[in-house]
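Format notes (please read before filing issues)

Several people have asked whether sequences and C-alpha coordinates are stored in separate files. They are not. Every record keeps both together, in the order shown below: the sequence lines, then the C-alpha coordinate lines. Line labels are part of the format and must not be stripped during preprocessing.
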Amino acid sequence: MEENLYYQQRLDKLKKLRDSGVSPFPNDLKCTHSSGEIFRNHSAVAKAELEAQKIEVSLAGRVMFMRSFGKACFVKLKDRDGTIQAYVKKDALPDADWEIFLQAEVGDFLWLRGYLFRTKTDELSIHAEALRLAVKTLQQLPEKFHGLTDVEARYRQRYVDLIMNDEVKEVFLKRSAVIQKIRQFLTTRSFVEVETPMM
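Then the structure lines:
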Protein backbone atom coordinates (compact mmCIF):
# COMPACT_ATOMS: atom_id res chain seq x y z
CA MET A 1 0.00 0.00 0.00
CA GLU A 2 1.24 3.48 -0.82
CA GLU A 3 2.69 5.20 2.25
CA ASN A 4 0.56 8.37 1.92
CA LEU A 5 -2.63 6.32 1.59
CA TYR A 6 -1.71 4.28 4.66
CA TYR A 7 -1.02 7.48 6.61
CA GLN A 8 -4.36 8.95 5.52
CA GLN A 9 -6.19 5.79 6.63
CA ARG A 10 -4.54 6.10 10.04
CA LEU A 11 -5.58 9.76 10.27
CA ASP A 12 -9.16 8.77 9.40
CA LYS A 13 -9.17 6.15 12.18
CA LEU A 14 -7.72 8.70 14.58
CA LYS A 15 -10.54 11.12 13.72
CA LYS A 16 -13.12 8.35 14.11
CA LEU A 17 -11.77 7.56 17.59
CA ARG A 18 -11.86 11.21 18.63
CA ASP A 19 -15.38 11.64 17.24
CA SER A 20 -16.56 8.68 19.32
CA GLY A 21 -15.10 10.24 22.49
CA VAL A 22 -12.03 7.98 22.75
CA SER A 23 -8.74 9.72 23.54
CA PRO A 24 -6.06 8.31 21.21
CA PHE A 25 -3.35 9.45 23.65
CA PRO A 26 -4.66 8.94 27.23
CA ASN A 27 -2.43 9.69 30.23
CA ASP A 28 -4.28 7.86 33.00
CA LEU A 29 -3.30 4.24 32.30
CA LYS A 30 -1.67 2.28 35.12
CA CYS A 31 0.38 -0.89 34.57
CA THR A 32 0.95 -3.46 37.31
CA HIS A 33 3.46 -5.57 35.39
CA SER A 34 5.89 -5.63 32.48
CA SER A 35 6.29 -8.65 30.22
CA GLY A 36 9.64 -9.39 31.88
CA GLU A 37 8.10 -9.43 35.36
CA ILE A 38 5.33 -11.74 34.18
CA PHE A 39 7.78 -14.24 32.70
CA ARG A 40 10.17 -14.05 35.69
CA ASN A 41 7.41 -14.62 38.23
CA HIS A 42 5.04 -16.98 36.41
CA SER A 43 6.85 -18.85 33.61
CA ALA A 44 7.27 -21.94 35.80
CA VAL A 45 3.62 -22.01 36.91
CA ALA A 46 1.67 -24.92 35.42
CA LYS A 47 -1.48 -24.48 33.33
CA ALA A 48 -3.86 -25.89 35.97
CA GLU A 49 -2.34 -23.72 38.70
CA LEU A 50 -2.68 -20.59 36.54
CA GLU A 51 -6.35 -21.42 35.93
CA ALA A 52 -6.94 -21.90 39.66
CA GLN A 53 -5.13 -18.71 40.74
CA LYS A 54 -6.46 -16.48 37.94
CA ILE A 55 -3.57 -14.02 38.38
CA GLU A 56 -4.63 -10.55 37.25
CA VAL A 57 -2.15 -8.30 35.44
CA SER A 58 -2.26 -5.07 33.48
CA LEU A 59 0.35 -3.86 31.02
CA ALA A 60 0.82 -1.74 27.94
CA GLY A 61 2.83 -2.50 24.83
CA ARG A 62 3.22 -1.90 21.13
CA VAL A 63 1.23 -4.24 18.89
CA MET A 64 3.82 -6.13 16.84
CA PHE A 65 1.58 -8.85 15.40
CA MET A 66 -2.14 -9.64 15.16
CA ARG A 67 -3.74 -12.95 14.17
CA SER A 68 -7.52 -12.68 13.95
CA PHE A 69 -10.12 -15.46 14.06
CA GLY A 70 -13.29 -13.40 13.62
CA LYS A 71 -14.47 -12.60 17.14
CA ALA A 72 -11.13 -13.50 18.74
CA CYS A 73 -7.56 -12.46 18.13
CA PHE A 74 -4.04 -13.25 19.32
CA VAL A 75 -1.88 -10.15 19.71
CA LYS A 76 1.85 -9.86 20.39
CA LEU A 77 2.58 -6.86 22.62
CA LYS A 78 6.12 -5.53 22.99
CA ASP A 79 7.11 -3.45 26.01
CA ARG A 80 10.46 -2.40 27.48
CA ASP A 81 11.27 -5.93 28.69
CA GLY A 82 10.18 -8.07 25.77
CA THR A 83 7.14 -9.52 24.04
CA ILE A 84 4.07 -11.24 25.46
CA GLN A 85 1.00 -12.70 23.79
CA ALA A 86 -2.52 -11.53 24.61
CA TYR A 87 -5.79 -13.23 23.74
CA VAL A 88 -8.55 -10.75 22.94
CA LYS A 89 -12.08 -12.13 22.58
CA LYS A 90 -15.28 -10.19 21.90
CA ASP A 91 -17.30 -12.09 24.54
CA ALA A 92 -14.70 -11.35 27.26
CA LEU A 93 -14.57 -7.56 26.70
CA PRO A 94 -17.09 -4.77 27.25
CA ASP A 95 -18.60 -3.68 23.90
CA ALA A 96 -16.83 -0.29 24.01
CA ASP A 97 -13.45 -1.99 24.50
CA TRP A 98 -14.08 -4.37 21.59
CA GLU A 99 -14.93 -1.41 19.34
CA ILE A 100 -11.64 0.24 20.31
CA PHE A 101 -9.79 -3.00 19.59
CA LEU A 102 -11.30 -3.16 16.10
CA GLN A 103 -9.57 0.18 15.37
CA ALA A 104 -6.16 -1.09 16.57
CA GLU A 105 -3.40 -1.89 14.10
CA VAL A 106 0.19 -3.10 14.17
CA GLY A 107 2.31 -0.31 15.64
CA ASP A 108 -0.36 1.03 18.01
CA PHE A 109 0.10 0.82 21.77
CA LEU A 110 -2.59 -1.02 23.73
CA TRP A 111 -3.20 -1.19 27.47
CA LEU A 112 -4.97 -4.26 28.73
CA ARG A 113 -6.00 -5.89 31.96
CA GLY A 114 -6.68 -9.58 32.27
CA TYR A 115 -5.56 -12.85 33.79
CA LEU A 116 -2.70 -15.17 32.93
CA PHE A 117 -3.31 -18.49 31.21
CA ARG A 118 -1.52 -20.96 28.97
CA THR A 119 -2.58 -21.60 25.39
CA LYS A 120 -2.88 -25.04 23.77
CA THR A 121 0.78 -24.68 22.76
CA ASP A 122 1.62 -23.93 26.44
CA GLU A 123 2.55 -20.28 25.79
CA LEU A 124 2.10 -17.99 28.78
CA SER A 125 -0.44 -15.37 27.68
CA ILE A 126 -2.87 -12.75 28.96
CA HIS A 127 -6.62 -13.26 28.54
CA ALA A 128 -7.85 -9.66 28.13
CA GLU A 129 -10.88 -8.52 30.16
CA ALA A 130 -10.42 -4.77 29.64
CA LEU A 131 -8.62 -2.91 26.87
CA ARG A 132 -7.81 0.68 25.97
CA LEU A 133 -5.87 2.37 23.23
CA ALA A 134 -2.70 3.87 24.75
CA VAL A 135 -1.26 5.46 21.58
CA LYS A 136 -2.55 5.55 18.01
CA THR A 137 0.46 5.32 15.71
CA LEU A 138 0.31 7.18 12.42
CA GLN A 139 3.41 5.75 10.71
CA GLN A 140 3.70 2.24 9.31
CA LEU A 141 6.29 -0.14 10.76
CA PRO A 142 8.55 -2.09 8.40
CA GLU A 143 7.36 -5.54 7.38
CA LYS A 144 7.98 -8.05 10.17
CA PHE A 145 9.98 -10.66 8.27
CA HIS A 146 12.17 -8.35 6.20
CA GLY A 147 12.55 -5.60 8.80
CA LEU A 148 15.08 -2.90 8.08
CA THR A 149 17.73 -4.43 5.82
CA ASP A 150 19.08 -1.22 4.28
CA VAL A 151 22.02 -0.15 6.48
CA GLU A 152 21.66 3.51 5.49
CA ALA A 153 17.97 3.50 6.46
CA ARG A 154 18.83 1.84 9.77
CA TYR A 155 21.25 4.65 10.66
CA ARG A 156 18.95 7.41 9.38
CA GLN A 157 15.92 6.01 11.22
CA ARG A 158 17.51 4.73 14.42
CA TYR A 159 14.18 4.89 16.27
CA VAL A 160 12.63 2.39 13.82
CA ASP A 161 15.70 0.16 14.06
CA LEU A 162 15.31 0.09 17.86
CA ILE A 163 11.63 -0.87 17.54
CA MET A 164 12.21 -3.69 15.06
CA ASN A 165 15.59 -5.15 16.14
CA ASP A 166 16.00 -6.36 19.71
CA GLU A 167 19.73 -6.94 19.12
CA VAL A 168 20.26 -3.23 18.43
CA LYS A 169 18.32 -2.35 21.59
CA GLU A 170 20.55 -4.72 23.60
CA VAL A 171 23.68 -3.00 22.25
CA PHE A 172 22.36 0.39 23.39
CA LEU A 173 21.44 -0.98 26.83
CA LYS A 174 24.89 -2.57 27.28
CA ARG A 175 26.61 0.62 26.09
CA SER A 176 24.62 2.65 28.61
CA ALA A 177 25.50 0.23 31.43
CA VAL A 178 29.23 0.32 30.54
CA ILE A 179 29.29 4.13 30.46
CA GLN A 180 27.46 4.23 33.79
CA LYS A 181 30.03 1.89 35.38
CA ILE A 182 32.97 3.90 33.99
CA ARG A 183 31.39 7.12 35.26
CA GLN A 184 30.79 5.53 38.69
CA PHE A 185 34.38 4.21 38.83
CA LEU A 186 35.84 7.65 38.04
CA THR A 187 33.45 9.53 40.35
CA THR A 188 34.43 7.38 43.36
CA ARG A 189 38.05 8.36 42.64
CA SER A 190 37.26 12.10 42.72
CA PHE A 191 37.38 12.68 38.97
CA VAL A 192 35.21 15.52 37.70
CA GLU A 193 33.24 15.21 34.48
CA VAL A 194 33.46 18.33 32.33
CA GLU A 195 32.10 18.62 28.81
CA THR A 196 34.69 19.73 26.26
CA PRO A 197 33.06 23.05 25.18
CA MET A 198 33.28 24.27 28.81
CA MET A 199 37.08 24.07 28.85
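For reference, the curators noted about this record: The first helix runs from residue 3 to 19. The beta strands are 56-68, 72-78, 83-89, 109-118, 124-135.
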